[in-house]
Amino acid sequence: MSRVVFDIETLALPLELFDQASREYLFKFADTEEKVEETKQNLNLHALTARVVAIALLNPDTNMGKVLFQSDKKEEFSSADGLVQFKSGSEKEMLGEFWKVIPSYRQFITFNGRGFDCPFLMVRSALLNVQPTRNLVPYRYDANQHCDLLEQLTFYNTTRRFSLDFYCKSFGIDSPKAHGITGLDMGTLVEEKRFHDIAEYCLGDARATAELFRRWSLLLDLGKNGS
After folding, report:
1. Could you read off the pLDDT of 8-52 as tens digits, one per residue?
2. Sheet strand arrangement including 76-78
């Protein structure tokens, strides 16, 4: 079966893009400095208040893939091993490229994709007038189409949810968070024009997800979904 892991990185839109009424709405319940900061961080998580800054796609069977990322210039290059292609572009260009690629795979694999990546990509694309080519939120209990590892490892939210980083550490998988960058650093990295670091970090998450998928598929997928 042809399959692909994908992961996205997002960043809150500048507050000045929202009118006064919208800003008041967003910060309606932020009545302390702590809540204001928390609200600002949460803006990164919603398609109406954030943008996509990187998308990583990785075939877990071949380790070949592509990373689409925003940059201040047009560029294309490959990883040192030649397995991964990097390509910069605008958010709209990245989304268009993603929707061209994703129908080629029978199964896609994410970590919390059903709760975040997938609806974010679909709504963000609609906002930018980019046509989605596939339903990224299909029937929940069929991992043959969309294998969301967070749902699989919690048995569809029967048990406690942990972060990708925590699952990686528990399974002995190298986590990109262990190298000094987290999703909370996207704003700083963009300001410092460290676009390649964002792309590499996004790829790191996809690679970690791919390895977690291999462990789940081998040891826990007793129904052999996706095989």
Report:
1. 999 999 999 999 999 999 999 999 999 999 999 999 999 999 999
2. 76-78, 84-88, 65-69, 50-58, 3-12, 107-110, 146-148
> Residue 109 is encoded by which pair of tokens?
């694999």
Q: How many independent structural domains does the chain possess?
A: 1
pTM for this one?
0.93
φ, ψ dihedrals at 194, nearest 5°: -95, 60
Q: Cα–Cα distance between 107 and 102 in angstroms, integer?
A: 9
Residue-range definition of the domain harbouring residue 197:
3-219
pLDDT at 90 over 80: yes
Question: Which tokens sit at 80?
Answer: 């040192």
Radius of gyration for the chain, computed over Cα atoms and rounded to the nearest angstrom: 18
pLDDT score, position 197: 94
69 three-class SS? strand
Q: What does the pLDDT look like over 74-88, one tens digit per residue?
A: 999 999 999 999 999
Alpha helices for the chain (secondary structure H): 20-26, 33-42, 91-101, 118-127, 149-153, 164-171, 186-191, 195-219
Dig out the tokens for 153 from the structure. Answer: 């490892």
Let me know if residue 197 belongs to a domain: yes
Check whether 227 has a pLDDT greater than 70: no
Q: What is the CATH number of the domain that holds 39?
A: 3.30.420.10
